[in-house]
Amino acid sequence: MDAEELLRRYAAGERFFSRVSLQGCNLSGVDLRGINFQDSGIGK
Fold first, then answer.
1. Between 20 and 30 A from 41 (CA), which of 8, 15, 19, 27?
2. Burial class (CB in 10 A: 0-12, 13-18, 19+), 6
3. Which domain of life is it from (predicted)?
4. For residues 21, 27, 32 and 38, what is the CA-based torsion angle, rounded to 10 degrees?
């Protein structure tokens, strides 16, 4: 998934992004309050 798709889906109200790969995405400075990256490997 690229950053544009993630932000589009987030803006549409989606908050649960299980097992997504955001490798290479720059999301610095983006407020993703309430987002859930369960089982995606983020933060490990």
1. 8
2. buried
3. Bacteria
4. 20
Q: Give DSSP secondary structure letters for 1-44.
A: --HHHHHHHHHTT--B-TT---TT---TT---TT-B-TTS-TT-
Residue the block writes with tokens 């798709």 = 5
Tokens of 7: 């932000």
The pLDDT tens digits for 1-43 are: 999 999 999 999 999 998 888 888 899 999 999 999 887 766 6
Domain extent at residue 32: 1-44
How many domains, in total, are found in the chain?
Answer: 1
